[in-house]
């Protein structure tokens, strides 16, 4: 027995009429008198009795009917009221949908999923989209109204951002494709045209700095606009438009702009403008590379001018100071304006390395700069400041390709500083040696340690000498000797001169004392490196103590036994080499305030026919007068050649050692690879010359360290 319930279709019609009436009332704002519980039950019963389809299709047609009415109301709204009416009707439609969804909740949960239909609320949104937003009379009007308002805002007018936010939020709620197709795409297109035209106007009338400020302002405005009423996802797209039209399309014109482009900003330290150009250009493809390339070629250009300027090359200390000033300048720009960007720092370093090595005398000049800074002449400079200077010098040192040439000069200058007692402090000297050791390894500084040991040992030796001979020395001249180990100190040509008789005797005493206490050693006097203090009495009995070089002392002592001496007589009596003697006489007779001698004829240079006298009229407000030698601060051409020759000689064993090391591990290698590997191994010391490497290979083949391959002449084999 089956019991079948048949529901009268009239029941369904009657129930639907109740629900339909309720939907009309909701849209007509008369919902207050409705019983939602009763309406829910009616809808529930319809679904239960299989009238879900009737309920659903009735819902579609009823909402559609109301939306068509609403559409007419929106279409008829004039001017500014158009968006307000749309916004008001949208808010009402949303409220209505929520109420309807509550009434039809049972249908939404059961009938809709089982028949794969759209849920009530989403259905309401889709109907709004099709009947309102995509209505032929609203769609284009809505888009053009929104774009017009944005244009007004871009031109400085105030618009109702709250209303814009609501309308655009509505488009987003209707689904991503509605927002994108009906607003975002056209928005990006007109924005692109707007900024293309504006950038063209700006670039014709603004300088680079002003243009960048305007571009930055526009970019910030667009970002702010997104935060107020656009979809957050639009931000990347609209900023991309501004970047492309205002920056990317004008990059080269901006950086090269006459009288205001990147080079002018760099020259005038315009940190704000530089920071702005960096931050804007980093947003576009190849933007930073463009800035970096212009900066690099500019730095190389000014560096090239600096290292080839004959005026700058006259004064090595000034030359190096100019390099440091340039480095400081660009370091500051990179730190303060370019976000301390490592790629810019690398570009700066490679530029400095490029032009410092254009001047073959850079290693010598940097050493002279160190010499100047570490001499006692630097008054009032704190240890911290000296440390800063040394760090900066090390930075320049890293750029040198010929570090071994710097080493040669540095050792010569260090020796002179220590021997003349003219160093700021041993700590500063040792600090630089530690820095060099860290940079280049132990072999670079091993001999320098010996230099300081010699200085200390010499003090002990002198104490022993005075203890042994103190009574004999009496009131005569006193002697201080520094005994230098040949290997540790830069070799000096062994030049002797004739010392005054009283000093010769004293030197002999020291020699016999020293050789008596040390076996198997030889002493040779380096008179060109010594100094002396002389007591002198001039014309009116005024007394002075003169601090002079050993050569100057030998010359002055001659005037104890003569009033007038010719150049030739002085040269014969002292046997001082002619170039040194001329410099020595120049400093005694031609330097104002230090001229203890006078010469005839009076001139700046020393001639071989000149006559010399004691200057009886010499006066000085100081009791102690220091007479420096007129120094050829830079090396003369022959000296330079000699140093270069010594450097080349020192390189030979290093190149050979590198070749042997490489061949020992590789056993067989072709010519080009040996050249490449040797160059690489030695580049921390110097740039090896391929021609010299080839000569060293030949030398090693002769001495049977290597042999050529019998089949392939470009292959070498290691002979164990």
Automatic annotation (TrEMBL):
Ranges of residues in domain Cullin family profile: 361-589
Listed GO biological process terms: ubiquitin-dependent protein catabolic process
Keyword Ubl conjugation applies: yes
Alphabetized UniProt keyword annotations: Isopeptide bond, Ubl conjugation, Ubl conjugation pathway
Pfam families recorded: Cullin, Cullin_AB, Cullin_Nedd8
UniProt key word Ubl conjugation: yes
PROSITE patterns found in the cross-reference section: CULLIN_2
InterPro entries linked to this entry: Cullin, Cullin-like_AB, Cullin_homology, Cullin_homology_sf, Cullin_N, Cullin_neddylation_domain, Cullin_repeat-like_dom_sf, WH-like_DNA-bd_sf
SMART domains attached to this UniProt entry: CULLIN (SM00182), Cullin_Nedd8 (SM00884)
Positions in coiled-coil regions: none
A GO MF label: ubiquitin protein ligase binding
Family matches, as PANTHER family: CULLIN
Family designation: Belongs to the cullin family.
Protein name (record): Cullin 3
Organism: Petunia hybrida
């Amino acid at each position: 027995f089956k019991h079948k319930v048949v529901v009268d279709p009239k029941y369904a019609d009657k129930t639907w009429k109740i629900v339909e009436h309720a939907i009309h009332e909701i849209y007509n704002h008369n919902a207050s008198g409705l019983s939602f519980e009763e309406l829910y039950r009616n809808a529930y019963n319809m679904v239960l009795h299989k009238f879900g389809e009737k309920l659903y299709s009735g819902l579609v047609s009823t909402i559609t009917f109301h939306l068509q009415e609403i559409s007419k109301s929106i279409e008829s709204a004039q001017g500014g009221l158009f968006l307000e009416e749309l916004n008001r009707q949208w808010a009402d439609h949303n409220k209505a949908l929520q109420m309807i969804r509550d009434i039809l909740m049972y249908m939404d949960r059961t009938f809709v999923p089982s028949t794969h239909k759209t849920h009530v609320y989403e259905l309401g949104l889709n109907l709004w989209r099709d009947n309102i937003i995509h209505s032929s009379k609203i769609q284009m009007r809505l888009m053009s109204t929104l774009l017009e308002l944005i244009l007004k805002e871009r031109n400085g007018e105030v618009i109702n951002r709250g209303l814009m936010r609501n309308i655009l939020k509505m488009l987003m709620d209707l689904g991503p494709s509605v927002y994108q197709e009906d607003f975002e795409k056209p928005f990006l297109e007109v924005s692109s045209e707007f900024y293309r035209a504006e950038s063209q106007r700006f670039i014709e009338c603004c300088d680079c700095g002003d243009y960048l400020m305007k571009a930055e302002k526009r970019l910030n405005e667009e970002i702010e606009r997104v935060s107020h009423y656009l979809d957050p996802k639009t931000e990347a797209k609209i900023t991309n438009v501004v970047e492309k039209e205002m920056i990317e399309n004008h990059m080269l014109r901006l950086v090269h702009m006459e009288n205001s482009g990147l080079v002018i900003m760099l020259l005038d330290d315009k940190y704000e403008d530089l920071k702005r150009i960096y931050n804007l250009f980093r947003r576009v493809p190849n933007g930073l590379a463009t800035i970096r390339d212009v900066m690099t070629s500019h730095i190389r250009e000014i560096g090239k001018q600096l290292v080839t300027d004959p005026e700058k090359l006259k004064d090595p200390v000034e030359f190096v100071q100019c390099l440091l000033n340039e480095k400081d300048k660009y370091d500051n720009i990179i730190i303060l304006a370019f976000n301390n960007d490592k790629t810019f720092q690398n570009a700066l370093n490679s530029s400095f390395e490029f032009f410092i090595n254009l001047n073959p005398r850079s290693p010598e000049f940097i050493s002279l700069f160190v010499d100047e800074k570490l001499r006692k002449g630097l008054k009032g400079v704190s240890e911290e400041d000296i440390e800063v200077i040394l760090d900066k010098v090390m930075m320049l040192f890293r750029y040198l390709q010929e570090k071994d040439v710097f080493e040669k000069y540095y050792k010569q200058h260090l020796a002179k500083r220590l021997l003349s007692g003219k160093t700021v402090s041993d700590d500063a000297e040792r600090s630089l040696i530690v820095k060099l050791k860290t940079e280049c390894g132990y072999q670079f500084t091993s001999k320098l340690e010996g230099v300081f040991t010699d200085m200390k040992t010499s003090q002990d030796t002198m104490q022993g000498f005075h203890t042994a001979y103190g009574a004999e020395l009496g009131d005569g001249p006193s002697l201080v000797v520094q005994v230098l180990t040949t290997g540790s100190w830069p070799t000096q040509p062994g030049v002797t001169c004739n010392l005054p008789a009283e000093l010769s005797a004293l030197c002999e005493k020291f020699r016999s004392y020293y050789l008596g206490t040390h076996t198997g050693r030889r002493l040779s006097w380096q008179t060109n490196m010594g100094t002396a203090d002389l007591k002198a009495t001039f014309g009116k009995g005024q007394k002075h103590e003169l601090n002079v070089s050993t050569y100057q002392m030998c010359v002055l002592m001659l005037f104890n036994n003569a009033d007038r001496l010719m150049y030739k007589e002085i040269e014969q009596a002292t046997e001082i080499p002619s170039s040194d003697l001329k410099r020595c006489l120049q400093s005694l007779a031609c330097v104002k305030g230090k001229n203890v001698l006078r010469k005839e004829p009076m001139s700046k240079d020393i001639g071989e026919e000149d006559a010399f006298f004691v200057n009886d009229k010499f006066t000085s407000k100081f009791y102690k007068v220091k007479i420096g030698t007129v120094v050829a601060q830079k090396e003369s051409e022959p000296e330079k050649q000699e140093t270069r020759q010594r450097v080349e000689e020192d390189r030979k064993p290093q190149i050979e050692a590198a070749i042997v090391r490489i061949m020992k591990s590789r056993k067989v290698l072709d010519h080009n690879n040996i050249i490449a590997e040797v160059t690489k191994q030695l580049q921390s010391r110097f740039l090896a010359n391929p021609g010299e490497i080839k000569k060293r290979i030949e030398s090693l083949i002769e001495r049977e360290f290597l042999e050529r391959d019998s089949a392939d002449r470009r292959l070498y084999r290691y002979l164990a």
